[in-house]
Structure formats: C-alpha cells, structure tokens
## 1
Amino acid sequence: MSTFQDFLIKIGIKENANILMHSSYLKIRSAFYEISIEEIINSIKKIITSNGSLIMPTFTYCFKRLDGSNEVFNREKSKSKTGAITEVFRKYPDVTRTSSPTHSFAFWGKIKNIFDENNSPNSPLGKESVLEWFVNQENSYVLMLGVDFTSFTIGHYLEIQAPVPWSDFSPWDYLGVRKIGISTEGEIKLIEVPGCAKSFITFEKYLLEQNIIKSNFIKSMNYYFLNVKSIIDVGIKYFKENAETLLCPQGSCLACDSRRNKYLC
C-alpha cells in the first residue's frame, strides 16, 4: 500500500464514498514526493471502488462573447482549466465527461448509472446538475488537497439554493460574456453564470471558527475531507444571511463590484 493511499484511508475515505475532488498537484507533490497524477487517481479509485464515485470539475468557461472571441467547447478535446489532475482524469478511458460548455464534470464509478456525457443543464451548477445529485447523497464528501475555499465549487450551488440576491445575475458583462454556453453541439442558454469565488474563504473562516471543520496539514500541504451533509444546511443559512461577505472588497474585483452595485447599494 502506498504512502498516499495510507493517508487517504487515515483521513476517512472508505469504500462506497462519493468524492468531489479539488486539488493542486504541486502541493500534493510537496507532501508526497514524486507521486504521479495516475497514482493519485488510482489510489482513490482503489479505496472507494466502483460502488463509490469520483468526481472532478473540468470547467472550460466556454461562454459566448459579444465580439465572437469565445472558445467553442469540444467534450472530448477541450482541456480542463481546473488543474493538471482534472485534465489527466477526464482522459481516462473509464471516465465520463459531461457536455456543459462552461462547467463540465468528469466522473467515474456508480454516478455513471445516473449521468452520461449528455448532461448539460441550463443551471450548470444547480438544478439537474452533477452537483445537485452529489449534495443529496448520504455518502458524499469534498476532498480538497492543497487548495482553499476559492476552489469550493459547492459554494456556487449554495449561492443558488440560498439564494443570494445575484444568483441569476451575470457579473461578466464587462468582458462581453453572454449567458450562453457554446459548444460543437450548439448553444445553450444559461439560468446562472457563476461569478468570482475568491471570497468563499469567508465561509471557510466561519466554518473553522465554529469548529464545524478543522484545518489540516501534512507537511506543507493543507487539506480538507468534508462531509457534505454536515455543511450544506449551515452553508445555505450562511449564504442567505451573509451574502455581502461573499463578495471581494469594494474596488478590488469588477465582477463582485457589479453585483454589489446592483443589489447592495
């Protein structure tokens, strides 16, 4: 058994678990010297078995732009923009990738009995999405290796569920981004366009202060292994009551400023 696999078992990963993984390969290598991406992926798969699910975001943000400069999503060829591990994972022969032009997911295991490559909802991180299924399972966990809550994709789901005032407002108009995803299969109108996630760290800080989660380190790598059921209701309440803290400070982020100016001023 590898050292990395020992670590995964020690933090609580078990057979049948549904795992949504966010990661930094650089940080993982700082804790597990010379480990390959394939070793990371295969270690998780071996523990959870095909009775569990391994899910990773493979977002490409292929929104239609007013000036026509947008990339066109190709499910098989478009590279993931959410890290090196996700890019390797999506190309595994037994892994399925969804068709959302903006926010696709790659997954392996029992979730393949629920979704196939055709999943591309109008709410890419909300209703009928992989995230909606994931958060409603009894045995779901978020594994975060070397990243903080700026990578916490469920935060966007919480924005929709709360909802925050700007849940269906696109903050990217200044970039000429339209509420439309574009792919080789055509265009899809979107209900929500997820915005900046940098201030999700305020929710992370709240969870730490309330002892709902604990900050963990192995060598120089920070990590979380979070039971989704333990944070989803807390998260909806926090997002509903503290929406303003989820925006970057005034003047530091045009996307967050657009939301603040429209809904909070």
## 2
Amino acid sequence: MSIRTLLLLVIFVPALVLGGAKALGFSIPVPQWGRDYVMRFLLEVPPPPLELPGIEGPDDPSRPLVVLDAGHGGRDPGSIGRDAEGRDVLEKEIVLALTLAVRDELLRGGGIRVALTRDDDTIVTLAQRPEIARQLGADLFLSIHADSAGERGDVAGASIYTLSTEASSEAAARFAERENAADRLNGIIIEGQSEEVSAILVELSQQRTQDDATEFASLIAREGEGAVRFHPQPRRSAELAVLRAPDVPGVLFESGFVTNEADRARLMTEEGRREYARVLAQAIRVYFARQSNR
C-alpha cells in the first residue's frame, strides 16, 4: 500500500463513518476540546552528566583525599522540620552548610585534600556520589545527612551508618529505604542498576574496605564523645546506595534530627556546626594517620 493511499484512508474513512452514522440517525459524541482534555505525561528526567569536582588542599597527589557528600539537593529537600517561627527547615540546606564547615576545618589544618560532591543546591544522583569518590581515587568518603522523626520532637541525636546487606534495626531499614528513594524524588530514573548487581557489589566488596569504614565510624563516635549529642543507638548499618563503592571506605553521618529543637539549634548556628566540623575533621585526621602507619 502506498503512502498516498494510506493517507487517504486515514482522512476519508473516519469522515465516511461519521457521515453514515448521521444519515442513519445515530449520534457520536464529540469532545469539546479544552483544558479538561489536556493530556499530561510524566517524563523521565535523564540523570545529569557526571562532572568531577575540583580538589582543594595541597597540590600533592600523595596526600590523602576525602570526598565529602552533602545529602539531597535540587528538587529533593530531604527531611523537613519547622523552626519556632513555623518556617521550613530543609535538610539539604543544613547538611550543605555543615559539609562546607567540615571542608573549611580540614583545609585550615592542612595536609589533607578535599573534594565535594556538591557545593550548591544541585542534583547529584545516588549512583554518582560514590562514583565521584571512585573516579577521583579518594581514600575516604563521608556522606552527611540529617534525619526526621515526623511528629515526634523528642527523638534526637546523631547516628553513624556503615554499609550492610542487613539493617541493624527496623529504624535503620526505614532510613535506608527513604534515602535510597532520593533519585525518584528528583524525578530521575537510573537504568541498569539491578538489585542483583547491587547485592554483588555489597557482598564482594573488599573486606579491607568494610573494615576501614567500620574503623572510621568508631573514630567519629570516639572523637564526638562529650562534644556531639548521639542517639542512644548511634552505631547503625543498612544497605545504603550511597555507600556502595566497593573500593572506597564510606560512612554516612546522620548529624541529628531537624524535627528536634535542640538538634536543629545546633545545626543551624555557625557555632554548632563548627563543633560538628571539629569532631568530624579530627576523626578524619586520626583515620589517615593510622592508615599511614600501616
């Protein structure tokens, strides 16, 4: 069948059908086109291209490199709390300010190179965050977040997460599920990240990498004793996508709850963030010092 014939069929057959129906006394409702007939489609947003950030600190590749990752960003605000005036307090803003404070503290002390997965309110996919650390050849990866307890304002304190195929508690499992949904909240669909591949990455990750991550988590807890308010169960583990780099030790630091007044006050003041930054920077320094002596 030629294209011309096909076009004639498409144009004239419907007209003949409508004309015949009218001649026989049948009526075919025709929609009144307008706002009620607008078709809406949810389009998949392609992931932004991976752009490696600059490295700050000593211009010496032999110096250790830590990648600091401020959670969420872009259309994903993360956890949301409210201050005394009823204004929204967004996790993505709090953790970015805290991450910048940790970077400044490390650079002030010297000797350690630092890179950030984001330094503004941009989208970085979950897969790209640890991949940035891998491609930069980082020695350590620290993802910084803040939590929410919904209407429960009494839940407070920082937590330290390491990677595990089994969550250490029901709360840790819920947290991992929420954090791993960040890409969906940003409207980004990542293809090719099957559950089977993810499980293999976790299971086959180098034991040394996991041991190093556990050691770093212990150092955060030790350095923060008496300085940072920790949750009653501060050490946790979960299958967090952001920690799935098999060759870079990674820890997720949950700095507190934006839904708790005391935690929120610490995280929203420069003085409070400086104390967090001092603890995290010291833990990083001790970790690298131990690594250099092995």
## 3
Amino acid sequence: MDRPADVIDFTPDPTLYPFESRWFTSSVGSVHYIDEGDGRPLLFLHGNPDWSFLYRMIVRALRDEFRCVAPDYPGFGLSVHPDGYGYTPAEHATVIAELVNHLDLTDMVVMGQDWGGPIGMDIASRQPERVHGLVMANTWFWPGDDRVTKMFSRAMGSPPLQWLIRNRNFFVSPLMRRSLQTKLTDKEFAHYTDVVPTPASREGIAVFPKEILGSHPWLGELEARVPKLADKKVALIFGRKDPALARDETIARWRRQFPDASLLELPEAGHYVQEDAPAEIVRVIRETYSG
C-alpha cells in the first residue's frame, strides 16, 4: 500500500521488518498497522517509546498459525502525528478500537506491554464479546498510586526532562537502550531513533510518562471495568529486570484479579520483553491459544 501523505517518510528495513505496511483512515488520520497470517487474531499493542517494530520477531514466528495485527498509535511508528491530538492513552484506545471494529476482529487475543496493557485492557473491557484471551507483559491496569510510580511520572514530566525527551530523544536513547537486556545492532536500534527524527515527532513519547498520573481518572474507570474479563484466559509474562513494572506487588495485583492466569517470570529479561525474550513469548502464546 502506498504511504499516505500525512505520515513521516521512513521505510523499515525489509530484512528486519518483512511485513506489508497498511494504513487505516481513523478519525484522526492515517494509522499504520501490519496484518499478517490467518487464524485466531492476535492484537499486539506497544508501549513507549516504541512501535509495532517491537513485535517483529513474534509476528514472524506466529504468522503461520495466527492472524497477527500490530498497529502504531498516532504519533508513533509510521502513523500520523495529528494536529490537535493529545496523545493520551484514552485517545489511543479510542483510535485502536476503531481499527478493531474496522477489521472486525473477533475471538481475538490481546497482548499489551507497558502502555499497551492499559490500552488493550480498555479495548477488551469495552468489547469483551470480541475477546478470547489476554497476554499481558510488564504492564498494569490501575491508577499509579505507589511512591515509585508517582516519582517516575513527576520526574519525566518535569520541564528539564520533557525538554530532553523532545530535543535529545532521551526516552529512546539512552533510556530505552539502557533498559534493553539484549544488545541490538545499530541498524535495529535505528528503527527506534530514526522514526522520531524531530522534537515535534516526539510529542507522543513525551506525553506518555506524564499520563501515568494525568490519566488517573481514566485508569480508575478501567480498573472498575476489568472484572468484565474475569472469564477470559490470561497469560502473564514479566521480565524481572524491570525495576518499575515487574515488582512483586505488581505481579501480585494481577494475580488477585486473575487468579487462574498462567505466569511466566523471566529472570534475565527486562522491560522490553519482546526484544529480550521473544521465543519465550511465542511459546506461551502457542501453548495457551493454539487450537
């Protein structure tokens, strides 16, 4: 599909990202996604500061068995950077729900990591009849009410760090680079840096950490709806070298909500489990949702 006029001029390396790029005309502009394979749909939702490239190895491994759909939120990856858009998780969830409805995804498994967790849980809890199961990795679905979370959000939302995020791409390099337990090649990591080449293109990346606190009401409403998913099959995956979202209390909170969920703890993986442990994620998805 030809690249729309309202998205950035970036072409992924086809040896790393061997997928057909597609665009959906959402209510805010062109939303990029990939749609590979047939079978039960897997909806892969990314976090910050990444995009569908994060799921490339998982999609390559599973597209012969599942229909793998991985979108980029507005302001991320190859999607539009809309004027007048707030880049809040609530807005992202609304746009991706439009895509889900457009593709008429049913019997789907929703995987979310980082902000992809709350966004995916929002979509799933509003349309539970479309959902077969969940795969949640290094993420949450409730208001950030603990000291560590509040400190991170306030620090990243402070004027000096907001300036660094926008003007020095600080959230991607060094923050994301240092969080990875797997060393990426320069060509691989360039897919995270070069897709946001200007301060204006990093607006979405800058907004997300502020929204940990800013979206407190939205997260509270989400937490209240999550019991609608109590009957769904759930797989939890946590890279334990993530000091923010793989703490014991985070995992315990998930398990209280979903006591029958399977749990895979990865002692050598960090926050970006899709880069650090793709084979383990593929195995869990196959074992839980094949057939």
## 4
Amino acid sequence: MRLASKGRPVYLGIDVGSVSTNLVLLDGEDSRSSLVWKKYLRTQGAPLAALKKGLSLIAEEGMWEIRGVGTTGSGRELAGAMLGADIVKNEITAHATAALHSDPTVSTIVEIGGQDSKLIVLRDGVVVDFAMNTVCAAGTGSFLDQQAARLGVPIENFGDLALSSSNPVRIAGRCTVFAETDMIHKQQLGMGIPDILAGLCAAMVRNFLNNLASGKELRPTVFFQGGVAANAGMKRAFELALNQPVHVPDHYDVMGAVGAALLAKEELEKSSGETRFFGLEQAVNCDVTNRTYECRRCPNNCEISEIWRDGAFLASWGSRCGQVGTQHGS
C-alpha cells in the first residue's frame, strides 16, 4: 500500500450512513472545488471498518495533501472523533450546501437513501424548512431493493423497466407491508412487472409527499439526491406528481460527503487555520474501537457512545446532562 502525506491538495468529505459510507475528495486549489475522487461503500453494519476501507482506497489510489476534513451522516460523530475532523455537520446542512454549490437556484431537495428520506426547502440559498422520515422504510432504497429482489429484477434494471410501463397499476404505499401485499395481489391478477414497478414508484412518491411535504410549497429548481435518484422510474414519478422537472445532480449518490468537504473548506479558509486531521497514514493504520454503555450518574440513564484510538480515549456523546465527557466509562 502506498501511503503519502503530501501530494495533490484536497479536502476530504465523509458521509457515514446506516447503509452506505461515502467519501469524496475536492480539489483544494480549484475555486470551483471540483470533485476529483469519490467512493460509495456499503456500511454493512460496521461503520468503522467501512471508513477505514475507504481511507485505504484513498491512500492506494493517489498521493494527496488533505487540507481539511468534514463529516456528516448518522455516524458523523464517530468519524469526526476518529479522524480529528475540522467540522462535523448534520445531513440537512451538508446536502443543502452541496446542492447550492451545484446550482444556486435550488429551492427544493428530495433526498432518499437506503434507510431514510429527507425533504429540504430553501429560499434564496437558505434552508427555511425540512422534514425527515427515519421510522418507516416505505419509499427508501432498502425497500425498493427488497421488492426488486422478490420480483427477480436486478435493481439496476428497475428504473428502465418502470419507464417501459404502459399502464401503471395503483399500489398502496403508506406501509411496506401493505405495499408488498398489494403488489403480490396485482401479480396474481396477471399484471405485468413493468406496470407493477411503475405503480410502486408512484406509491413511494405519494408516501413521501404525504408524509414530508404536507403544507410545504415545493418550488423549482428541484434536486433529487441520494442513492434512489439512480432509479429513473422514481425520478419520473416525482416529475408527474410535482408537475415540474426534477434534476439529478452528477454526484447524486455522494452529495452529503460533498457538502461536508465544502463546509470543511469554508471553515478553514475563514479561520485561516490548519487542519486537525491527524494524517492519512495514521488513520489507515490506527486501532479504533467504540463502545456503548448506559450512564448511571443521574436519572436520565443516557446511552453513551465512546470512541478510542490506539488505546486512548477520544470522545463520547449521548449525554443529556453534560456529566459525561472528561470522566468517561464510569
């Protein structure tokens, strides 16, 4: 493995999610902060392992001078503590930052990933409203993957098959159980697979809009981000439901990571400071562990998460009273 601390100046953005861990490198000297490298990895329930694999690929595939690091996603605190990130941001801010960097006219962002979905409403480049669905799997990438597998359809062919439908059937989409039951019923009635897939796309879009967009005005320009944006059937279903074009950005699958890198660059340029990132070689070779326990210091009984690197305590989070942090593990 080739490891280097010097090379092409870049900013590293990382989005650690429950389904995927995404890493990007943005050009550190180009004023447009163009993307020079990206990787979409399956988290597979092991975010630390996925993160270290991604960092190893960065080391193997180029020589880099990492000037700053930003993290986002459900595992942002974990990744941020492990690497010494310069900024740790929520997914709403990261996705909005990436979209506005791509097109300053964006007013609506639809983001659907493997396990959750988000709606972000912007006005004049500022987030004014958002909604997230993290409870029900209906309309997320994992549900679409499951249904494609059940129908014997490769997920990469899902969108094209849905687009070929001439008579989409209506599928109940408010619940994954009802949707699957309804799809089986339509199959038993002899409905074609393309019509069922197109109906499923429409049902998922109705579910998204009913749950997240109620009372919100979805103005153009509309961006569709997240892994599900690769599904052309879902894109068309959104366009039909919204009666306006829906745009899929070039790097739709890693927009959270792009936003994290942009935010890190902005933070460091504003402060004229040096990155806190402790080095690519060290990050690849270090021994990182995390543990979770229930704190008994007060009646809150908070679930505390800790991260350790090479036997040294780095950080903890989850405390609501503030007593956990410096006195860890007791």
